[in-house]
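Q: What does the predicted 3D structure of Aldehyde dehydrogenase look like?
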Amino acid sequence: MIKHKLYINGQYTESTGDEWIDIVNPATEEVISQTPKGTEEDVNKAIDAAFEAQKKWEKVPSNERGQIVRKLGDKIKENRETFIKLLIEEQGKPQDQASDEVDTAIDYFHYMSEWARRIEGEILPSDRPNENIFIYKKPIGVVAGIVPWNFPVFILARKVATALIAGCSIVLKPSQQTPNTAAEFTKIVDGMDEIPKGVYNYVTGTGSTIGNVMASHPKVGIITMTGSVGAGTKVMEAAAQNITKVNLELGGKAPAIVTENADLDLAVKHIVTSRLTNSGQACTNAERVYVQESVAEAFTKKLTEAMKQSETGDPNNETGLDFGPLVSKDRLDTVHEMVEKAVSEGAEILTGGKPLDREKGFFYAPTVLGNVQHNSSIIKEEVFGPVLPIVTYKTLDEAIEMSNDTEYGLSSSVYTENYHETMRVINGLKFGETFVNRENFEALQGYHAGVRKSGLGGADGKHGLDDFLVTHVAYMQYKTE
């Protein structure tokens, strides 16, 4: 069994602590590796190394940084099958979905490398004679990156590639449940002499120890975390000690609005995809469906049948699966408790509603719930599992109002062939992103960001890169003679 090490200042190192965390394959329940339970001392060493290395890294010409970021993507591509295998083992994704995630991570490094010559400042006219105002964009400094367990390869790419191209150094903390792919990426960094020591550092452990130290450290320029609202709240509290900038992608409760003018087959196809991707463990997944009364019966029948027909199995050995296991026994129990509570509040199980009867693994049956009231707990709380509650509505204004009635505000979707309905929904919804007649997944060149408790700041594209930069204004007086 593999036992990982930390990676600090360009060297593999043992943790100063003596505790270990078991990494469990969620499909087989086998312990597949162990990772150190890092300490505050470990984190401080990593941040100190990153702080010193960043001073030199930001002076490396941006086109050279771009070449290095692209090479990281190339190296992941060379080791693509290894990353896919590790991702399936530690996270439980079906092979097609694991392949897609790894390929998206490769694309992300390649895409972000293209920003090397696109970080732009401005020159403004002054109110004074013989003066210009220069606006520079400079790296924010040390990035403390906390990666979640649900997309451990893609979100690693999102944080590392953006930090490096901006001229920042990074201390990366993977999830304590899925560190194996990050450990494999660290091998790539260790083999690249072009990356100065200390620019990339890798520490493992619990969020309560590692994450809080990272967020409260005075040498950190930005803490970027993808995770739960509870964890994000703790990060903000810790970051407040030094007024450190935070970039948070937190929970979601994405509504899917289906109108009487929708292509129902298309809606069913994409809503099922948006629910079963990663077994429902994504903050962008469709979490609740609002369907117009006139088509509710036909839509619900089609959706229920599609969920029934979805296939699962051991993703380590089988292909063509629609969904895999949930990441842990705790997650399995939580999802089932939420379904049982929904039933106690009057919901009807149309399919699923229980863990699958398998010898091993944390598998939950794809579930459709009918007769759900908008004020029920299953509509208000993030499920993070393969469960779809359906609510009916009369008017589009009613659907928009119910969709907005949430503490979250990340993703949303609408299904209609009516242009006017589309525009009404887009302009009425209070979410960071709306998907029209398609599944819920963002583009690298877009901007993935939420409102309310779904987070602060965002990722992807030029707006995502901007979060890793600070603005510096210089007032340039000059002589005319």
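A (community wiki): The structure tokens above were generated from the sequence. The chain has a mean pLDDT of 94. The chain has two domains: 2-249+445-474, 254-436.
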